[in-house]
């Protein structure tokens, strides 16, 4: 009985204790919530500033000559003469070397003789000598007389054959003789006509085609012969000599390269993600490890309308857009073939009202920022201008010196109490969309 009373008293005390503990926790939680509400949501803030805004796209490329002349062989031959070495300055028209041209000279002389013969044949057909005309006229008259005699003989033999006085064989011979004499007469007549009036129609066209073919062949051989003389077509510097005197070279072998080393350009590939910010005419800074501390200037000359897949490693690749940068000003120290780093300025404004790009959020299809006013977050519509990798230009909706929240979290809403905290890590999600 006593034990039961003790257990009943202990249970009542336990229930009372739990109720008291719950009350204490509730009071503490309520006080913490009130304190938090009074303190506000901790946020990182910055002031809108007017300052320069710049953005750059980076790439690596290779230096090459803007203008160059490369000499190649077009046939298998030997290097007969070599007059220059790498680094030599050359002038337009200067002979840099020669290739063996014996076989080509033979082909050229043959083509030239054929052209002269074809030209003579055409001239002879168009402008015959008088004695040639008289000779053809005599041949024509003789063929005409033979043909008429053959006609008379045929008529006589035909009558005798019909009367049974001539065999079929003899009549066939007379008929064949008439056909032969008629053909000879027509040929003689045509030859006389051509001598008197010259070739016309398809005959003239055929003769002209023959002479044009001969002329083309001569020009081809003449072109081949001219290529055996390695002559500079520009002032410049010899950048490469890839053969030696006496070498036998196969068709298509590169022999010598010259170029203007004062006019250089860089070919590079810009990543697909950055290519949309590129425009011809943008300024470029060029640096190279070969000239540490030296900075060259350039202009973005062209941006390819298409992209290519560039290999980045044995197994990797990326999509790039080819660009060409023209080096301006001093190029001393830069050489064709050098690898260089490019910094292409895609945005450069001397004065703009800017905030960190993480401060701009998109809500309901519009760009907005949270402005802090008297410890309260106020959502405000803004019009943005240009963007850089770190900052966004604000055109309207914000004034210099106003405080904005950077990377507002989802808990920040219009009218929320906030507490500005320095060195607060950026909230996850940053300038996301809702």
From TrEMBL:
Coiled-coil region: 101-231
Pfam families: Beta-barrel_YknX, HH_YBHG, YknX_C
Subcellular location: Cell envelope
InterPro entries per record: Beta-barrel_YknX, HH_YbhG-like, RND_pump_MFP, UPF0194_transport, YknX-like_C
Every YbhG-like alpha-helical hairpin domain range: 111-225
Keywords (A to Z) from UniProt: Coiled coil
Residues of the signal peptide: none
Gene3D superfamilies: 2.40.30.170, 2.40.50.100, 6.20.50.140, Helix hairpin bin
Domain YknX-like C-terminal permuted SH3-like residue range list: 352-419
Domain of life: Bacteria
One CC-aspect GO term: cell envelope
Keyword ATP-binding assigned: no
GO MF annotations in UniProt: transmembrane transporter activity
Residue intervals of the YknX-like beta-barrel domain: 264-344
Record has Coiled coil as a keyword: yes
Homology family: Belongs to the membrane fusion protein (MFP) (TC 8.A.1) family.
Protein name: Macrolide export protein MacA
Species of provenance: Pelotomaculum propionicicum
Organism taxonomic ancestry: Bacteria, Bacillati, Bacillota, Clostridia, Eubacteriales
The gene coding this protein: macA_8
């Amino acid at each position: 009985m006593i034990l039961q009373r003790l257990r009943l008293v202990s249970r009542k005390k336990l229930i009372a204790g739990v109720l008291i503990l719950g009350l204490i926790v509730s009071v503490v939680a309520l006080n913490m919530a009130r304190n938090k509400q009074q303190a506000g949501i901790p946020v990182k803030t910055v002031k809108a500033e007017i300052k320069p805004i710049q953005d750059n796209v980076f790439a690596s490329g290779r230096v090459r000559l803007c203008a160059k002349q490369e000499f190649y062989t077009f046939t298998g031959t030997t290097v007969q003469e070599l007059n220059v070495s790498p680094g030599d300055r050359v002038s337009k028209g200067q002979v840099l070397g020669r290739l063996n041209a014996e076989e080509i000279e033979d082909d050229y002389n043959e083509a030239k003789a054929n052209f002269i013969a074809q030209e003579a044949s055409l001239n002879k057909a168009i402008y015959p000598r008088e004695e040639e005309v008289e000779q053809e006229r005599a041949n024509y008259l003789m063929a005409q007389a033979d043909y008429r005699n053959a006609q008379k003989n045929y008529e006589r033999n035909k009558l005798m054959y019909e009367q049974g006085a001539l065999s079929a064989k003899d009549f066939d011979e007379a008929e064949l003789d008439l056909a032969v004499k008629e053909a000879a007469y027509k040929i003689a007549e045509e030859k006389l006509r051509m001598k008197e009036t010259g070739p016309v129609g398809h005959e003239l066209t055929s003769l002209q085609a023959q002479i044009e073919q001969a002329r083309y062949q001569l020009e081809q051989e003449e072109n081949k012969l001219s290529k055996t003389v390695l002559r500079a077509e520009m002032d410049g510097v010899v950048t490469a000599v890839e053969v030696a005197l006496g070498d036998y070279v196969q068709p298509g072998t590169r022999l010598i390269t010259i170029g203007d080393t004062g006019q250089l350009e860089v070919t590079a590939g810009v990543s697909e993600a950055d290519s949309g910010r590129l425009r011809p005419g943008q300024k470029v800074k060029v640096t190279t490890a070969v000239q540490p501390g030296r900075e060259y200037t350039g202009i973005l000359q062209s941006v390819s309308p298409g992209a290519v897949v560039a290999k980045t490693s044995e197994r990797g690749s990326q999509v790039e857009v080819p660009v060409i940068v023209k080096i301006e000003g001093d190029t001393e120290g830069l050489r064709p073939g050098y690898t260089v780093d490019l910094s292409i300025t895609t945005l450069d404004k001397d004065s703009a009202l800017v905030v960190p790009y993480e401060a701009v959020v998109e809500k309901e299809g519009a760009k907005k920022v949270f402005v802090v006013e008297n410890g309260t977050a106020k959502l405000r519509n803004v019009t943005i201008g240009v963007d850089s990798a770190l900052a966004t230009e604000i055109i309207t909706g914000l004034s210099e010196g106003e405080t904005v929240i950077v990377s507002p979290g989802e808990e920040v809403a219009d009218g929320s109490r906030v507490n500005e905290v320095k060195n607060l890590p950026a909230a996850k999600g940053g300038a996301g969309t809702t």
